[in-house]
């Protein structure tokens, strides 16, 4: 797959992950602030979910670059890296799930590079990859305390397909964290998602 350039942010591009992936992971900050929990309402916009504010804290996922090493150069999976002015700032891991949907196994953006369209560019590439494989859509999971991610997926056309109140109880029996499953359904997997001149384009 050729590099993808985002015309809205000319310094932003997405490429297939290379040998610099591990060094990028170890040198990045993927933490984010949690300030509230949302009570997910399936079928309602995120802005209408009841919110419970909490004392803010930072949450950080321990990302291991070796966890997805087999996903590179595989027929049914891929790892993409986003670059901002030639510096790696984000990544996306995607694979074909057992139910036929593309599954975003991981999406993360280096904290200082957020609000530059990086996550949106990675999701656009995920859509391109999924449509090219003629899959019916994309699925992913986030949590009700990552409201920024929930708002992003909603803006990108994803809808909540389900929630799981028990998923994280094995880690913390008293947790208020709820798993939220998002889906981006394609009406026509063969339709060109980048027909508009305002959309990302492939370049040599």
TrEMBL record:
Alphabetical UniProt keywords: Acyltransferase, Transferase
Keyword Transferase in annotation: yes
CDD domains: NAT_SF
Domain of life: Bacteria
SUPFAM superfamilies the record matches: Acyl-CoA N-acyltransferases (Nat)
Listed GO MF terms: acyltransferase activity, transferring groups other than amino-acyl groups
InterPro entries: Acyl_CoA_acyltransferase, GNAT_dom, N-term/lysine_N-AcTrnsfr, Streptothricin_AcTrfase
Domain annotation N-acetyltransferase: ranges: 41-187
Pfam families, alphabetized: Acetyltransf_1
PANTHER family documented for this protein: N-ALPHA-ACETYLTRANSFERASE, N-ALPHA-ACETYLTRANSFERASE 50
This protein's name: GNAT family N-acetyltransferase
Organism listed in the record: Pseudomonas vancouverensis
């Amino acid at each position: 797959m050729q590099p993808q350039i985002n015309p809205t942010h000319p310094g932003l591009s997405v490429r297939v992950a290379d040998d610099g992936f591990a060094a990028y992971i170890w040198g990045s900050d993927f933490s984010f602030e949690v300030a509230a929990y949302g009570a997910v309402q399936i079928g309602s916009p995120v802005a209408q979910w009841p919110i419970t504010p909490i004392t803010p804290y930072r949450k950080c996922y321990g990302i291991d670059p070796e966890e997805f090493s087999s996903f590179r150069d595989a027929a049914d999976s891929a790892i993409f890296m986003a670059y901002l002015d030639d510096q790696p700032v984000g990544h996306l891991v995607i694979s074909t799930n057992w139910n036929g949907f593309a599954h975003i196994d991981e999406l993360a953006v280096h904290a200082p590079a957020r609000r530059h369209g990086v996550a949106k560019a990675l999701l656009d590439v995920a859509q391109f990859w999924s449509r090219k494989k003629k899959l019916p859509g994309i699925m992913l999971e986030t949590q009700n305390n990552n409201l920024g991610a929930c708002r992003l997926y909603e803006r990108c056309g994803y809808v909540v397909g389900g929630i799981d109140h028990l998923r994280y109880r094995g880690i913390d029996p008293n947790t208020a964290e709820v798993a939220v499953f998002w889906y981006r359904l394609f009406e026509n997997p063969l339709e060109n998602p980048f027909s508009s001149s305002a959309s990302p384009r492939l370049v040599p």
